[in-house]
Amino acid sequence: MRPGPAVVAPTAGAVGPALRQTSRGEDSAHPFRPTLRAKPRREPPLMAILLIGAGDLTDEVAAALDAQDTGVVRLEQPEEADVREALARSDVDRVTVVSRDDAIALRMALMVRYEDHAIPLLVTLFDPTAAAQLREADEHVEITSMAEIVAPSLAGACLGEDLMAVRESPDGPIAVRTDGERAREEPLVPPAGGNRVLTILVALALPYDKSAVLLVYGFLGMLAVLLAETIGAVIVLDQDAIDAFYGASKTLVTVDPNDGVAKGPSAFKLFTGIVMLFALFFEALFTAGIVNRLIDRRLTGWVGTRAVPRRDHVVVVGLGKVGLRLCQLLRAVGVRVVAVDDQEDGEDVGVARNAGIPVVIGRGADPSLLRRLSLDRACAVAAVTSDDLQNLAIAMAARSIAPELRIVLRAGDGHLANETRSLLGFGVVRDVHQIAATLLAARSTGSSVRSVLCYEDDAHLVHEDGRLERAAVLGSDERC
Q1: Which pLDDT tens digit goes with each residue over 133-180?
Q2: Which CATH number fits domain 149-184+307-470: 3.30.460.80, 2.40.50.140, 3.40.50.970, 3.40.50.720?
Q3: How far apart are the first and last CA of the chain?
């Protein structure tokens, strides 16, 4: 891996010949070009952060730090020598590693810790196992992830317009609301979900996956054949119920028709022959369902936790790290959820399956698929793929099916998010990069802020006492 160029934020003051920083307030006009207006000089930053990582999220973290007048030493794809050189400088106070790839983030964290055993370190890691191991090995490390930061805000938007966020707690699920000045926490009351017995009956009668459909209708067909043959033998052949049931069972398993049929009327012989043909058909369906469930990789269930919900549920389209964490959080606070993804072999699809989350494979913008997920009876649909335009297509498809449905869109481009809000009015739009960058920048400086939430489309930091602080970001059009 070739070392990336060292990019230095323009706010930290001169700190060395290798990576030189300049103040945004310096008059850097061309010597032969007249300067119209002198810019005020900004004070040198109180601290400098070594920011390691490449990509849009890292760029926004750097911008948020710059807005806080914090110096930034930026390394995008460093080698060990680059990290060593940066840490050797006396002005670097803390280190932040931001990456969407856990392997890269872990590698960068190990580089930093090899060079400096005590410097405060903030790392983005999604995998809970790797995060737990790193915490156990290093007491000076703080670990979070973009998915962990933004999931509460996305979940809150799925459950109500007045909910800024939801979160788990030892005392039960918590709803976060605000009056604009302070965050207020109270117990969350999840959607009722209807009568449990009725829900189970609906799941049994209208299963989503094909193998369950074959099993259900094959079984119901065989049951109908058994009842029809038994009742017919009692009425036409004047048999008692036990003999009639015995003869009907022989017909059902295609061993032999009822013994009394040979001496019965011709019309009943014709009826019995037709019933035997139907029995053969329904048995084939039932057998195919069993075989399919035995050999196929099932991502949904017939009943239980992996059954596709039919009422008061949230449809999460896009099962990346953000989508998976959103599903896990919704399930943890008592909300039924079904995930949709177009990659059956995706890593996060396997994690969701092991966690008992029902996963449907298909294109999230396909109206026929959304109809099969009972979108008209859902609480919300959350389009959280990594492609902003795909999320917009999903929202438009969902709106065409259920015009009154609550729609939550993930956005990573602040300009596209603002355009979507102003021009199309598609529900709630959350710029996940802006939300995550706000909290990462605050935590990078050692701040004790508790979380971040969106209020009136602006990111606000939540302090320990519940006080809200509007995040300082570069660019007046940047909104969450």
Answers
A1: 998 888 889 999 999 999 999 999 999 888 999 999 888 899 999 988
A2: 3.40.50.720
A3: 34
